[in-house]
Amino acid sequence: MKIITGRRDVLGTFALTVATGAIGLASAGAKSAAATVASALTPPGATHLDALKKRLAQAPRRRDFRTVPMILNHPEQWDHEALTEVLSYRRGPKQAWDGIDIGIPWLNIIRNALNTQIWSFKHPNFLAVSVTHGTAVLALCDQAMWDKYQLARLAGERFKTNTLIIEQKAAAADPANYEDPAGVFSGEDNSIPALMRRGVVFMCCHNAIWEQAAALIKADANPDKLSHAALAAELTNHLVDGVVLIPGAGGTMLELQQAGFHYA
Question: How far apart are the first and last CA of the chain?
C-alpha cells in the first residue's frame, strides 16, 4: 500500500536493524486506518486533534501475522508508529482509560469525559485513549472472529454479537446540536466507531489477545485446530480498522503516564 512508502525512514528513527524473525511479518501486512477519519465529529477548534487523527490514519497497522510470540520484543511486532504519534501528542489534556471489562458501560464513561472536557472546560483538543485489555479486547475484534470463535461465550450474556462496533441510529443526528439528548454526543450513540470519529484512540493489548486465544483453546472453540501462536495471530489480524496494537496494557499505560496522560 502507498502509505508504507517511506516506512524505512520511520524505522530508521527507531534504529531498527534487527530482523523480525519467525513471526512471519511482511510489508503487505501493514494497512491504513484512513477510514476512521471519515465523518469526523471533533469540535471546532480541535486543529491539533484533527492533525493527530490524520497522522494516525497514515500510520501502518500490522495485520498479516502467521504466528505471534507470547511476549513481543521488537517494535515491528506492534503498531509502533501509531503508538509513537499518541505518545508525542502535546497539544491538549490527555486521559488514558483502563478498559478491562466488555460488560461495563466503558464507552459511555469515555463519552461523558469527552463532553465534559470539550464543552464544560473548553478543551477541544482533549485526547482520550482506551488502553483495552481483559474481555474488553473482544469488542475490538470484527464480527467474523465473533462468528468463527463464538466470542459471545467469552463476552457474556449481554453480547450475542459485537454490538459495540455497530453504528447507532443516533449517528445520523445533526452534530451541530450537541445538546440533543438523542444525538451523536448522547448516550444513544455509544459505539466504538462514533468515539473514533471524535478522536478517541482504541489500543489493543497483545497480552490480552494471547490470553483470549488460550481461553478459546481450553474451551475447544478452535475449529481449525490452530496453535496458540497462530490463533492469537488470527485474532490480531481481525482487529477493527483504526485500532492500535500495543505489546501490553499495563506496560504501555506507564509509557502513557510518563508522556503526560492522566490515568482513568
Answer: 36
For residues 89 and 127, is the Cβ–Cβ distance under 8 A?
yes
C-alpha 264 chain-centroid distance:
17
CB 78 within 8 A of CB 206: yes
Per DSSP, 199 falls in state T
Distance CA(112)–CA(187), nearest Å, equals 9
Task: Locate all alpha helices (DSSP H) within 174-248, ordered by sequence.
Answer: 192-197, 206-218, 228-237
Whole-model pTM: value is: 0.87
Burial 66-81 (b: 16+ CB within 10 A, else e): ebbbeebebbbbbbbb
What is the sign of the dihedral through the CA atoms of 15, 19, 25 and 28?
positive
Helices and strands, number each (H, E), in the chain: 10, 7
In whole angstroms, what is the distance from residue 180 CA to residue 119 CA? 13
Q: Could you tell me the mean pLDDT of each successive run of 10 residues in the chain, 264 residues long?
A: 34 37 41 50 96 97 98 98 98 96 97 98 98 98 98 95 96 95 97 97 98 98 98 98 98 98 98
Pairing between β-strand 61-62 and β-strand 30-31 as defined by DSSP bridges: antiparallel
What is the CA 130 to chain-centroid distance, rounded?
A: 7
Q: In which element (H, E) is residue 87 found?
A: helix 80-87
Name residues whose C-beta falls within 8 Å of residue 126's C-beta, 6 or more positions apart in sequence.
49, 92, 93, 94, 95, 114, 117, 118
User: How far is residue 192's CA from residue 198's CA, in Å, rounded to a whole number?
Assistant: 10
